[in-house]
């Protein structure tokens, strides 16, 4: 729509611009003023008291330096300075004499400068009745304003300038950067994107105004509740919201919510307690996109809800996430993390024997787009054919059928949606007897049985039969309670297994999953209702007797807890037997995943890189005892059922006999991943893991091993050498030329290769700590690394 604004309306708009603040009534905040979190300090309020600036507590997590609606019971936050780094009790914000708005923690360490003016000239700050906090100069001019740095909300009179963006919160009460963003692009197109979470970089667009009419555009939210994109000459390009609600009667805000929908809300100023924010009460559009479940559907990412979950639009037009039958939420507090299977996947080693153990559950009007690996279209393809095709294929998690067409899909399932407009029927494969509702029924039945036994006892009291029943019942109960104290390790939830228990669980150590430096790893199943699958590692190559050292290392490992580490379930320390029991990782090792016959997708490989980096950061800096892994390589990175990276074998380096080293005596690690200081008898620090991660990162980027004797060219045999040469020559495309997804993301390829080169520097002092590595991977500027090639000639 192209409409020339009338002259009088243009003049009205100019009066509303947030940088024209001379007409506003200030309640000045003098230079040197400060506020302290949780001290009882009154916030800095606007003249009418409708808005306030100060600290808002976020549960038990900390404090936001924020602006909020101050006259309604629901203290709705509209702007924050530290959404990704909450301040703690005792932190302060100060408007300094030189015009900086500085946030410090309670020790005085600067968290960030919210506004930096540079130079002198600042006179005071002020919280305005528009919801805008400004820093003004001596002449009353605006030097800085919160309206220019929005978080997730726009207010009336606020303008979103070309290139600016709103980023949705992670959850309703978790204000950190979330999974969606809205940006006014330089070409004038207002677009909503999914983000490459945990980064805020744009992933895929799912809604836009569709205008691309050059630069100089702005998104205006005026006092009458209208929102539109306007060109520099005053021409309206696109309307977003057209809801005239009187500002004198209602508070307004437009927010991109955590579910990815941009909504316009109103709140009556005369409301009594119990009212809530509501969508603008008109017949016009007041939220976009109209159906988030159908709007988001791309090959990368999980969709509107998490992997393995289904999105369904409710009667209130808000998306609801749910798990299919046989699946449950990973995190009940964050349903958008997706769902996990409650059953053991079909065994591809014996697919024919497994068919009878599975069944198909029908889901009407349901699809999981972009997870297809098989498509069949024929006159013989009916629903039963499609059903049997999925049942007999161990790779198939679900098939969808629609009039003579059948699509096979494997997990993790993405973009799941249920909607009456979808004509597909989803045929979900689940293991018989593992339905969550059946488990609940069994538990309920057991309780009923026990109650029935007691009731029956009142009738049969005096009977010798009942006395025998009571004896057996209470004896069994007593046995259940009389678990030896040593069976659970004190101060941590670790099971102390006997060797016989693990021998039974593994079927006599029958199924070997792999063999590492410490010994073999076997698959097993624990008894009980849950039938938890485990991986049992036999430690056959321990230094010395290892009794004390083993106990110490088990305690260290047992105290770790991170989503990118393999969780220790328990241990066995009986006689000469030393075994560790871990949770089972259904997708095996990273080595098998990236060096197999097919190339995994680019996005998933990058997520794995992030996961490994965060896991190492935790081991180095965040757990109770610093742990140096000493053997980071693809074989020691395992993948769970959603392909999340999990570091294994951490904390075990001290237990390994020196002669079991795969390089030379006294060196821990694997050739090709070993840092050069091992060879020079230099002190070993966390930087040895940084080096190994650098090699691993290159392997993830290029999807090949660091050393390939069969490489096409001689100079490509050592990946690290070749990557450094390609970087120096500006030919990084050669590393990924057969990977279309990576070729379309060359900026990230360059970033990751530069980070890897920093990590493999010969001098450990030049390598970044893992905290810095994580920051560089997430988007902090990466400087040009020096050439590390001097090391490679020494191998």
TrEMBL record:
Bilayer-crossing regions: 452-474
E.C. numbers: 2.7.11.1
N-terminal signal peptide: 1-23
Domain Bulb-type lectin: 28-148
EC main group: transferase
Gene3D superfamilies to which the protein is assigned, alphabetical: Bulb-type lectin domain (2.90.10.10), Phosphorylase Kinase, domain 1 (3.30.200.20), Transferase(Phosphotransferase) domain 1 (1.10.510.10)
Membrane topology, as annotated: Single-pass membrane protein
Subcellular localization, as worded in the UniProt entry: Membrane
Catalytic activity line of the entry: L-threonyl-[protein] + ATP = O-phospho-L-threonyl-[protein] + ADP + H(+); L-seryl-[protein] + ATP = O-phospho-L-seryl-[protein] + ADP + H(+)
Domain Protein kinase, chain residue ranges per copy: 507-792
Primary subcellular site in the record, as a coarse category: membrane
Alphabetic keyword roster: ATP-binding, Disulfide bond, EGF-like domain, Glycoprotein, Kinase, Membrane, Nucleotide-binding, Receptor, Serine/threonine-protein kinase, Signal, Transferase, Transmembrane, Transmembrane helix
SUPFAM superfamilies found in the cross-reference section: alpha-D-mannose-specific plant lectins (SSF51110), Protein kinase-like (PK-like) (SSF56112)
PANTHER family, per database record: G-TYPE LECTIN S-RECEPTOR-LIKE SERINE/THREONINE-PROTEIN KINASE SD2-5 (PTHR47976), RECEPTOR-LIKE SERINE_THREONINE-PROTEIN KINASE (PTHR47976:SF47)
Family the UniProt entry places it in: Belongs to the protein kinase superfamily. Ser/Thr protein kinase family.
Protein name per Swiss-Prot or TrEMBL: Receptor-like serine/threonine-protein kinase
């Amino acid at each position: 729509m192209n409409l020339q604004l009338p002259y009088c309306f243009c003049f009205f708009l100019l009066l509303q611009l947030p940088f024209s603040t001379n007409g506003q009534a200030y309640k000045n905040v003098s230079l040197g003023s400060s506020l302290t979190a949780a001290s009882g300090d009154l916030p800095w309020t606007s003249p009418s008291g409708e808005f306030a600036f100060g600290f808002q507590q976020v549960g038990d997590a900390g404090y936001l330096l924020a602006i909020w609606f101050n006259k309604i019971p629901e203290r709705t936050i509209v702007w924050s300075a530290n959404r990704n780094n909450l301040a703690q009790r005792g932190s302060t914000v100060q408007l300094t004499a030189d015009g900086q708005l500085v946030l410090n923690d309670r020790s005085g360490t600067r968290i960030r400068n919210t506004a930096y003016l540079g130079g002198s000239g600042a006179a005071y700050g002020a919280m305005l009745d528009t919801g805008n906090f400004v820093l003004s100069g001596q002449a009353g001019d605006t030097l800085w304003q919160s309206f220019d740095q929005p978080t997730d909300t726009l207010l009336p009179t606020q303008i979103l300038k070309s290139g600016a963006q709103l980023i949705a919160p992670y959850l309703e009460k978790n204000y950190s950067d979330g999974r969606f963003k809205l940006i006014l692009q330089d070409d004038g197109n207002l677009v909503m994107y999914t983000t490459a979470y945990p980064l805020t970089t744009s992933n895929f667009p799912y809604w836009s105004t569709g205008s691309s009419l050059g630069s100089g555009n702005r998104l205006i939210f005026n006092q009458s509740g209208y929102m539109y994109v306007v060109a520099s000459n005053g021409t309206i390009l696109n309307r977003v919201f057209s809801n005239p609600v009187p500002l004198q009667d209602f508070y307004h805000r437009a927010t991109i919510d955590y579910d990815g929908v941009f909504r316009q809300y109103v709140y009556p100023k005369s409301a009594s307690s119990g009212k809530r924010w509501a969508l603008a009460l008109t017949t016009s559009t007041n939220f976009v996109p109209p159906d988030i479940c159908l709007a988001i559907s791309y090959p990368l990412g999980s969709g509107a809800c998490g992997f393995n979950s289904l999105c369904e639009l409710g009667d209130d037009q808000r998306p609801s996430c749910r798990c299919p039958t046989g699946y449950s939420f990973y995190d009940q507090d964050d349903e958008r993390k997706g769902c996990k299977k409650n059953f053991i996947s079909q065994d591809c080693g014996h697919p024919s024997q497994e068919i009878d153990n599975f069944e198909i559950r029908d889901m009407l009007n349901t699809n999981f787009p972009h997870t297809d690996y098989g498509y069949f279209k024929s006159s013989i393809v009916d629903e039963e054919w499609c059903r049997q095709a999925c049942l007999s294929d161990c790779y198939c998690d679900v098939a969808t059928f629609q009039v003579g067409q059948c699509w096979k899909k494997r997990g993790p399932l993405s973009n799941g949606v249920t909607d009456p407009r979808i004509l597909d029927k989803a045929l979900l494969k689940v293991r018989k007897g593992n339905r969550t509702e059946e488990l609940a029924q069994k538990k309920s039945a057991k309780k009923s049985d026990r109650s029935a036994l007691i009731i029956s006892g009142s009738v049969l009291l005096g009977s010798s039969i009942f006395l025998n029943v009571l004896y057996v019942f209470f004896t069994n109960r007593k046995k259940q309670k009389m678990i030896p104290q040593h069976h659970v390790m004190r101060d941590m939830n670790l099971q102390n297994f006997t060797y016989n228990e693990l021998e039974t669980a593994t079927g006599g150590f029958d199924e070997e999953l792999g063999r590492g430096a410490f010994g073999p790893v076997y698959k097993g199943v624990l008894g009980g209702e849950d039938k938890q699958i485990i991986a049992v590692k036999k430690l056959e190559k321990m230094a010395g007797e290892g009794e004390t050292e083993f106990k110490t290392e088990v305690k260290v490992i047992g105290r770790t807890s991170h989503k990118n580490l393999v969780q220790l379930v328990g241990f066995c320390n009986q006689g000469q037997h030393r075994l560790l029991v871990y949770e089972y990782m259904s997708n095996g090792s990273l080595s098998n995943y990236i060096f197999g016959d097919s190339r995994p997708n680019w996005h998933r490989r990058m997520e794995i890189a992030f996961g490994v980096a965060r896991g190492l950061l935790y081991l180095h800096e965040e757990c109770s005892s610093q742990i140096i892994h000493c053997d980071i390589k693809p074989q020691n990175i395992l993948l769970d059922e959603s392909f999340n990276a999990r570091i294994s074998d951490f904390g075990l380096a001290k237990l390994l006999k020196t002669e079991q080293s795969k390089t030379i005596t006294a060196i821990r690690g694997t050739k090709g991943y070993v840092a050069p200081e091992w060879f020079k008898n230099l002190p070993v620090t966390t930087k040895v893991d940084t080096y190994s991660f650098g090699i691993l990162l290159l392997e993830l980027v290029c999807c090949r091993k660091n050393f390939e004797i069969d490489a096409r060219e001689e100079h490509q045999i050592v990946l690290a050498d070749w990557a450094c040469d390609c970087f120096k020559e500006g030919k990084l495309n050669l590393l990924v030329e057969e990977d279309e997804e990576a070729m379309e993301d060359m900026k990230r390829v360059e970033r990751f290769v530069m980070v890897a080169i920093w990590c493999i520097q010969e001098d450990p002092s030049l390598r970044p700590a893992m905290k810095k590595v994580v920051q560089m991977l997430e988007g902090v500027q990466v400087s040009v690394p020096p050439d590390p090639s001097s090391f490679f000639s020494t191998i």
